[in-house]
Design a protein that fits this description.
Blueprint: H1 9-22, E1 50-54, H2 70-76, E2 84-86, E3 92-94, E4 97-104, E5 107-112, H3 126-134, H4 146-149, E6 152-159, E7 162-167, H5 172-177, H6 188-194, E8 211-217, E9 221-226, E10 241-245, H7 250-259, E11 264-267, H8 274-278, E12 283-288, E13 292-298, H9 308-317, H10 320-326, H11 348-356, H12 365-375, E14 382-388, H13 392-408, E15 411-417, H14 419-422, H15 424-427, E16 437-443, H16 450-453, H17 471-478, H18 483-500, E17 503-508, E18 511-516, E19 519-520, E20 538-539
Parallel strand pairs: 1-10, 1-11, 14-15, 14-16
Antiparallel strand pairs: 2-3, 4-5, 5-7, 6-7, 8-9, 9-10, 11-18, 12-18, 13-16, 13-17, 19-20
Length: 540
């Protein structure tokens, strides 16, 4: 059984000191330095009849409005297309809409692509588009993409190939979100016919994408097949079919990959055996550009961790490079902002300059101890940090944070929450009682740093500590169409969040893609969640 050596709290201090001193780690761990992050892999040279791919768990369903998660979007991105398309190099281009017009600050008019058909041969119409988007406005359906629709007043088909979205107030993120699953289009007739069974293993979905839903055997596999009538000739699938397995156990999945039983998999956190995969003679690991990050989320209004200087001290003392080497085995560079360079889709120099002025992420114990001293009595008392059970990455990060806190005289307790209950921390205040902070992966969805900071609206569901310091600027930025003006507002928000350390960025999380030597052509970057990443997949 392949296991990552456990970084215990007792060993963490020694490990951190060693890594900080020499830039390496025990057992040959590589430091998390600048990585060559990819947006493409070598093109396939031949089609294959079938390819087997693994998912980290079985999807809960394939309804796009409830697809805000890894396994679901990995499948759906090849089936159901959106109005716009987020490309592997983080550009937003036309998708099912050939044009997105913004005649007034609160109006978006989408011209729908003509001569596009669903898999059953029926034509795509504005009615299908309007029905798909309008589902996000129905509280009974409970969309997971509600943040992007909070300012939408109405969605109407205003012509055979025209859809008009009216906003309550200007919102620059809405149109960008149409390049994600929030803008996915499904057949209206099938949605009405299947009702609550839409997207289930029995009913599947009816969309326009380069692959079509074929069958879903619960607990076993899900198969999609090439759509030979796909409208976009430049993105027609190379290979005939793709079967997804649901091997959740990490060790079993790695063994299946190394043996060739499975051709590939995306990992959002490095498996314990990442080194085994990197050195495998039968496959290749590719690290891709990503919008994902690893962070410690503040969730309290009382106690020592509610004190800003305590949070600043812990952040200043953490060596993120050492964390990347020890826990992520060199696959996660240190991060100094929630919205790193991959987010900078506009005004890059403005964001670069602001980024360079943020704390560098290296350990500064002298500064950290001074901050604790300044906090005085407010730093006394227990700080409880939750980590997810059954996750070496969570538990090892927790132990390193605990050890760092000990160096500062902070009393940090690590509370392991079972994996089945960890999700409750995000949506149930009762589950967060007695917890001051918790570790999390997180990501925005589009190349706009504002998307990473909308969580800090004062009344936002994900603003777990009730931080109010940037609410006004977030709202202004969301209503600001001018890129330069918006960038100035967003960098001010970024500075406020960094100073408060309400969310503490730790490491950037590149996409980890493994492909066997049998296949190539998959998209290795973050947009695989919304872009038809498997169309180029074929034989080497």
């Amino acid at each position: 059984m392949l296991r990552r050596p456990l970084v215990t709290a007792a060993a963490a201090l020694t490990l951190l000191a060693g890594l900080a001193g020499c830039g390496g780690g025990p057992g040959g761990l590589r430091p998390a330095v600048a990585l060559d992050l990819k947006t493409a892999t070598p093109k396939a040279t031949r089609p294959l009849d079938s390819i087997t791919w693994n998912l980290p768990y079985e999807p809960q369903g394939l309804d796009p409005i409830k697809s805000f998660n890894y396994a679901e979007n990995t499948v759906l991105s090849n089936l159901c297309e959106s109005l716009l398309r987020l490309t592997p190099d983080f550009k937003i281009k036309p998708g099912l809409a050939t044009k997105a017009a913004n005649p007034t600050p609160t109006t978006w008019v989408y011209t729908i692509r003509d001569h596009v058909t669903f898999w059953d041969g029926s034509p795509l119409t504005a009615q299908d588009v309007a029905a798909s988007l309008a589902r996000h406005l129905d509280p009974k359906l409970g969309t997971w993409w509600g943040d992007y629709f909070q300012n939408v007043r109405s969605v109407r088909a205003t012509g055979p190939l025209k859809v008009t979205v009216t906003l309550k107030k200007p919102d620059v993120l809405f149109n960008q979100a149409m390049a994600t699953a929030a803008g996915a289009v499904e057949q209206k007739a099938q949605m009405e016919r299947t009702g609550e069974n839409f997207g289930t293993p029995k009913q599947g979905v009816m969309c326009t994408g380069p692959f079509e839903f074929t069958r879903w055997r619960s607990g076993d596999s899900l198969t999609i097949t090439r759509n030979d009538h796909y409208w976009d000739r430049d993105h027609r699938a190379v290979s005939k079919s793709l079967t997804f397995r649901f091997i959740a156990d990490e060790t079993t999945a790695v063994n299946a990959l190394r043996s060739g039983e499975v051709d590939g998999q995306y990992f959002y956190l490095p498996p314990a055996a990442i080194g085994q995969l990197q050195s495998s003679p039968t496959g290749t690991v590719t690290l891709g550009r990503s919008l994902s990050y690893w962070a410690l989320l503040d969730s309290t209004k009382t106690g020592p961790y509610a004190n800003r200087e305590v949070r600043q001290a812990l952040s200043a003392a953490l060596d993120r490079g050492a964390l990347g080497a020890a826990v992520f085995q060199g696959t996660a560079p240190a991060e100094r902002a929630l919205a790193g360079p991959a987010y900078w889709g506009y005004e890059k120099q403005t964001f670069q300059d602001a980024y360079d002025r943020l704390p560098h992420g290296k350990a500064d114990l002298k500064k950290a101890k001074a901050l604790v001293a300044r906090a005085g009595a407010a730093a006394k008392g227990k700080i409880t940090i939750a980590v997810q059970g059954s996750s070496a990455v969570h538990e090892q990060t927790g132990n390193l944070i605990k050890a760092t806190g000990k160096q500062l005289g902070l009393d940090i307790e690590i509370r392991v929450v079972p994996v089945e209950q960890y999700g409750n921390l995000y949506n149930d205040p009762k589950a967060r009682r007695g917890i001051d902070a918790f570790l999390s992966t997180w990501y925005g969805n589009v190349p706009d740093p504002l998307d990473a900071y909308t969580v800090f609206l004062g009344n936002g569901d994900n603003n777990f500590s009730g931080f109010q310091g940037v609410d006004a600027d977030v709202r202004k930025a969301r209503a600001t169409a001018d890129p330069a003006a918006r960038a100035r507002l967003v960098t001010r928000v970024q500075r406020g969040v960094a100073d408060d350390v309400t969310w503490m960025p730790l490491n950037n999380l590149p996409v980890i893609l493994y492909m066997s030597d049998r296949v190539t052509g998959a998209v290795p970057s973050f947009p695989y969640l919304y872009y038809p990443w498997a169309t180029g997949l074929g034989g080497r």
